[in-house]
Specification:
alpha/beta; Rossmann fold; 2 domains; eight-stranded mixed β-sheet; 12 strands; 38% helix; globular
């Protein structure tokens, strides 16, 4: 999972429905929904069936000749905040641009199939997702009146932007459709797949070490593991009550605790503070308090801060959910399918042979995740997924691609799956491209809305990106 925890606690604003061709006059509100018809399979399958993909438009700043800034929330439902409250909003204002955000197939209400069975999810491929966005951009360039609520000049220049998985989409769109996409801003793009992504855990540890509690957190996880691995149901129930989590299995309890403790490592670090310090490490500062008690206090605080119910915690932690339930709207199930069939990136504890300190339970291992791949999606799912083939096809496709701005945070928990890894860049920038490591920043921080509390390093990165975009547009 990428942002499962934040997805479960986020809410999408209410929207009004409207067909693009019917919305004339002044630009409608950016929360107005629009729809474009897409093939279920762009490559000849599904018997030519079609579906409706949702998108939103902010035309507030558009002037004839201005560029189009395209984005997708990736694994989140579309929301007006992606076009009203991001750095791209400021770019559009400066360049008289128009902003569009399109929902990714199978997320939100953009569903090509009536359910999420393994058979239905076969059309969730990278190629189909990219072809969806390409079809929209093609229409925006050739027949803009078919997709926009205001008159837009044909053949407008297009900049694609995204962070995290949607950063992948941005980079791949420039690589695969350079005739449609002039340039891309790929923030914290997780373009490098790892089957056993224990580096995720180690990135969290580096952040903990920076704010002074790595040793104590690791000790607490080890102490809790003694209970989780004991097969003692009484001790397990007592531990769950102490931490305020539901009565799940030992392995699902371990997975839930890992998700909750790492939540704040995704939050932006600002001049006002660091959530990892204030909402995790602050509980471990008193050496007279047992590490497990501090751990429990941090988890209870996270649950309270997020307003999570016990039912929501079950949804986060129960890895068996979705095995027999094929209903739409299960973000976790769709992302699980992508992990099982695309890029792996299973967020596991470091294997014992690495001799690394662990910040999540040893129960959070490959078996914990992969046993459900075939149970959830059918026997045709190859286990384990061929991550090397994925990298050969999709990571290598980015080599030599011009006009891509890659950014990554030095404290990004996903850093070692981006091109700005902890041991150096694993991709060299081509002509018109650039790579920036943002000191002190976490995940996809540069594409957020500009704020007085932003780190100076984030401001510098945005300034460099703005200059690149200006050169592309020129």
């Amino acid at each position: 999972m990428l942002t499962t925890f934040s997805l479960l606690i986020s809410a999408t604003a209410a929207m009004i429905s409207c067909h693009a061709a019917m919305c004339a006059g002044a630009p409608p509100a950016s929360s107005t929904q629009y729809w474009i018809t897409q093939p279920v399979d762009h490559f000849g399958g599904a018997g030519g069936a079609t579906w409706q993909q949702q998108y939103l438009v902010n035309a507030t700043f558009y002037r004839p000749g201005g560029p189009i800034y395209v984005s997708t929330p990736g694994e989140s439902p579309v929301s007006a905040r992606y076009i009203d409250n991001s750095h791209f909003t400021l770019l559009a204002q400066r360049t008289s641009g128009l902003l569009v955000t399109l929902e990714h197939r199978y997320f939100g209400v953009s569903n090509p199939m009536p359910d999420l069975s393994g058979a239905s999810l076969q059309f969730l491929t990278i190629e189909n997702a990219l072809a969806d966005f390409a079809a929209f951009i093609r229409a925006a360039k050739r027949t803009p009146s078919s997709v926009f609520p205001i008159p837009v000049v044909a053949n407008a220049q297009v900049i694609f932007g995204g962070g995290s998985y949607s950063g992948n989409i941005a980079a791949w769109m420039r690589a695969r459709y350079p005739d449609l996409v002039l340039g891309s801003w790929a923030s914290s793009a997780i373009v490098y797949g790892r089957l056993q992504n224990y580096q995720f855990d180690q990135s969290f540890g580096r952040h903990l070490a920076q704010v002074g509690c790595a040793q104590r957190v690791s000790q607490a996880v080890s102490d809790v593991d003694a209970i989780l691995l004991s097969n003692n149901s009484t001790q397990l129930a007592s531990m769950q009550a102490k931490f305020g989590i539901p009565a799940l299995s030992a392995s699902d309890s371990a997975g839930l605790l890992a998700a909750l403790i790492t939540t704040y490592s995704m939050a932006p670090v600002t001049t006002a503070g660091d959530y990892v310090e204030s909402r995790v490490c602050s509980f471990f500062g008193n050496a007279s308090i047992k590490a497990t008690d501090a751990y429990a206090a941090a988890i209870r605080s996270t649950i309270q801060q997020a307003g999570l119910t016990q039912q929501a915690l079950v949804q986060i932690g129960n890895s068996s959910l979705g095995i027999d339930n094929y209903e739409l709207g299960q973000v976790n199930r769709v992302w699980y399918y992508m992990s099982c069939t695309w890029f792996g990136n299973w967020q596991i504890a470091p294997p014992r042979w690495t001799q690394l300190k662990s910040y999540r339970s040893q129960l959070v291992n490959m078996a914990y995740f992969q046993t459900n791949c075939r149970k959830k999606f059918g026997s045709r799912i190859p286990v384990p997924v061929d991550v090397e083939a994925y990298n050969r096809k999709w990571f290598n496709s980015l080599r030599g691609v011009s006009n891509v701005f890659y950014t990554g945070g030095a404290l990004d928990i996903w850093r070692d799956t981006t091109i700005t890894t902890s041991y150096g860049n694993i991709l060299q920038p081509a002509r018109g491209s650039s790579i920036v490591l943002i000191e002190g920043a976490t995940h996809a921080q540069d594409l957020g809305a500009d704020s007085p509390g932003d780190l100076a390093s984030v401001r510098r990165a945005r300034s460099l990106g703005d200059a690149l975009v200006s050169r592309w547009l020129a």
